[in-house]
Amino acid sequence: MAAADSSSATLRRCDLCSRGIRLAGKMRSDVVDLLDTYAEQQGLDASASVAAVEGVPVAAVEHWDEQTGTQRLLENLAAYRAFRALLAQMLEEQQEQLGEADAALSRALAAVLLQVSAFAYHLEELLRLESRGPPSEEGARPPQPPHLGLFERKLRGLGVLRELAQWAIRSARDLRQLAKPSLGSSSAPSLAESP
Amino acid sequence: FLVSDGLVQSCGHIIPESPVLALGSSFTALCILNESCLDFGNIYANQIIWKIKNRVVPKEQYHEVNRTVSSVTFNDTSSLANPLTCNVLADGQIEQNIYGITVTIGLPPEKPKNLSCIVHQLSKLTYPMTCTWNPGRHTFLDTHFRLKYRWPQENFPDCIPKDVNNSCTIADVQFFVNLEVWVEAANVLGRAESDPLVLDPIEIVKPLSPHNLSVNSGILPTVLKLSWENRISAAVMKLKFNIRYRIIGDTKWMQVPPEDTASPRTSFSVQGLRPYTEYVFSIRCMKEDGVGYWSDWSEEKTGVTTEDKPSKGPPIWRIIDASRSPASWTVHLMWKALEPFEANGVILRYEVTVRAKSSLSGLSEKYNVNTTSLTLNLPNGTYEVTVMAHNRVGTSPPSVLLIPASNSKAPVKNVRTLPKDGRLWVGWTAPNTYVLKYVIEWCLVSNSSDCIIEWQNEPGNIQGTYLKGDIKPFKCYLITVYPLYADGQGSGQSVKAYLQQDRPSKGPTVQTKKVGKAEAVLTWNHLTVDEQNGFIRSYTIFYKTVDGNETAVSVDPSKTEYTLSSLTSDTLYTVRMMAYTDEGGRSGPDFTFTTQKFGKGEIEAIVVPVCLAFLLIVLLGVLFCFNKRDLIKKHIWPIVPDPSKSNIAQWSPQVPAK
């Protein structure tokens, strides 16, 4: 019974990891396309440098290889929950600002938002398999966006998307680490089952 | 009805007002009379008559609930029709209608089955998903279907089918997340849900076919390089391919082995093709691991392989005309143009080398022609003719024909033909020596045109073959078989043949050469070969008198004359002739002649004796007369006394005196 559970859990983990990796790959590709469209629509230079944006989780991290599986999952989950809120905000601002004029950009943003949402769900499921359970979202309300002018909001949007692209790369690598059989997992001690 | 305050009030009503019922279920309706109605004319519930259309419902189905309410029960809705009316017999036994309702009968929806979905790629970024299902039996009611789908943590708006009840298209789906899909059917009688389908849309994708296919020829004549653009990004899905190709004009497609194109790529070199041939290519793709659907075949693109040198030399043959003088020949050399798969390009010229083997110097003459024949005048001797075909790339291997001074080697024996399946088969018995190859010549024998020779090569190890080419039925062909040896040639053995015989198109025209009293010599010409349509096996002569029976006589087909005997003299005869082939005969025109009354010499035999007899009689008569000439004389011319010697003459006249 336990063995069956454990092996089905492993299978489910494998499935979530592999699909998560592919989703991260697609997400990155879609975000990169979206970046170009966004910059063009907003009249920005796509290569404009944007200072670190407040409230946007940073993908770069020190000692990445030393992280445990659980740590990776938690960090990823926090990041994607934040991105979900940020993108929802961006979508709202977008619709206010341009109205119906740019339905394509809104659709693309909505599609990326959906994927971010789905990825967050993958992470929550993986955490459940770790018998950890995902942290609740109650307290995690998005920080009130500082009151920014139109131009600053556009730049912020650019920064959000850029960082999301970086996160997508990092998430794929995190999941690949997770998918490796022995490393990175701090799940419940494996039960002594093999007869 | 009561009339009060200008409004018409009904006397009662029925509940339920407009029910919708399930087929086969039971139903009870209540007719409730208004209190105010009862005051008029003693109307009570037990006087209520229920009617369906205009038929009265049997009283057994009624039940008087109380003074003002009557109910009617139907065990099975199949007996219900519209309208259902509540009526009452009022004063004067007049049936009055109180109220009426219409009933709708239908079925609750069945559980939708066989739900299946497919994602059709519409453009580089758009992936609508179409799901289809079996809606189940007809409900007779307005039934709405909705396609519902969700993620574990996210709900999406329902997909509502337009104009149909068995499919719905979702505008765009996300990949790599499991989607739960199911169909809900609902009408007023109930709802039903299909079994849910859980799938990752990436597994049911039919991609767009690759486009911008281009075909390039390279250096090698057997290779063409294909390149194309894929319309699905690698981030979404890795692809595998099928490439198919065919020769232009052909209907059969060949496929590049799928194992060779089972991985992501944007180009491929197809090998093993024929040189200088136009090919049509087409390509399709699907997810590399085989999960999903193949795309449609892309638009076709053509390409031509480069030329290669010819693979074979052309087969050669000759016609020798020694008629002008035996020491000098007119040699008509001919060779067959190479088939496209041997020519491997456009043949620009043929190089013909004629080497006289009999002369010690070994001098040879070279000729370059761009036709497939060459006529030369050569002195009698042995020659070796070599022909090579040139195209832009190179030269074919040489084809060699030996023309010996005389066809002195052993010929074939026993040449025979057999028509089979619309073609003419020629067979022979091989000579004892080793034969290199055979040449079979044939030509159409006809009076109206020359016998144009056609020919074909056959390998030296066979003893029979079919003639290639258009052999017409009912025509005579002269077929000759020559064995060719390494160092000489056997003389040709000929036979005439027909692919299919028919009866002759005309019959022989028979005439008389000489007609006697009891015999007639008939004569005719043989039919021309164009009239024969087959080998003439026999002639038959038919002759008859006006009122007599026809007599038939068989004649050998080689003859052109025949004598009829035992004829009746001085009679009109009609004669005709039929010529027969294996397929039948045809009659020629009738010819009439009359036999002589008298035989040869008969007339003389009669006339001469008659004349002689006459002569004899005349002679005898003359002699008789001569004998009796005095008597005759006496009778014929009697002596008339001469008046000058008469007495009176001597009397001299004295003139009487006056």
UniProtKB/TrEMBL annotation, chain A:
Transmembrane regions listed in the UniProt entry: none
Annotated InterPro entries: 4_helix_cytokine-like_core (IPR009079), Ciliary_neurotrophic_fac_CNTF (IPR000151)
Domain of life: Eukaryota
GO MF annotations, alphabetized: ciliary neurotrophic factor receptor binding; cytokine activity; growth factor activity
Main location: cytoplasm
GO cellular component annotations of the record: axon; cytoplasm; extracellular space
Pfam families, per the entry: CNTF
Localization annotation: Cytoplasm
Gene Ontology terms: biological process: astrocyte activation; ciliary neurotrophic factor-mediated signaling pathway; negative regulation of neuron apoptotic process; positive regulation of axon regeneration
Keywords: Cytoplasm, Developmental protein, Differentiation, Growth factor, Neurogenesis
Protein's job: CNTF is a survival factor for various neuronal cell types. Seems to prevent the degeneration of motor axons after axotomy.
Family statement: Belongs to the CNTF family.
Protein name: Ciliary neurotrophic factor
From TrEMBL, chain B:
Ranges of residues in domain Fibronectin type-III: 206-308, 315-411, 504-598
Signal peptide segment: none
Domain of life where this protein originates: Eukaryota
Cellular location(s): Cell membrane
Family matches, as Pfam families: fn3, Lep_receptor_Ig
GO biological-process terms attached to the record: interleukin-6-mediated signaling pathway
One cellular component (GO) term of this entry: plasma membrane
GO-annotated molecular function: cytokine receptor activity
UniProt main location, coarse: membrane
Membrane association type: Single-pass type I membrane protein
Entry keywords, A to Z: Cell membrane, Disulfide bond, Glycoprotein, Immunoglobulin domain, Membrane, Phosphoprotein, Receptor, Repeat, Signal, Transmembrane, Transmembrane helix
Keyword Glycoprotein: yes
Transmembrane segments: 606-626
InterPro entries named in the record: FN3_dom, FN3_sf, Hematopoietin_rcpt_Gp130_CS, Ig-like_fold, IgC2-like_lig-bd, Type1_Cytokine_Rcpt_Type2
Homology family: Belongs to the type I cytokine receptor family. Type 2 subfamily.
Identification of the protein by name: Interleukin-6 receptor subunit beta
Protein source organism: Nyctiprogne leucopyga
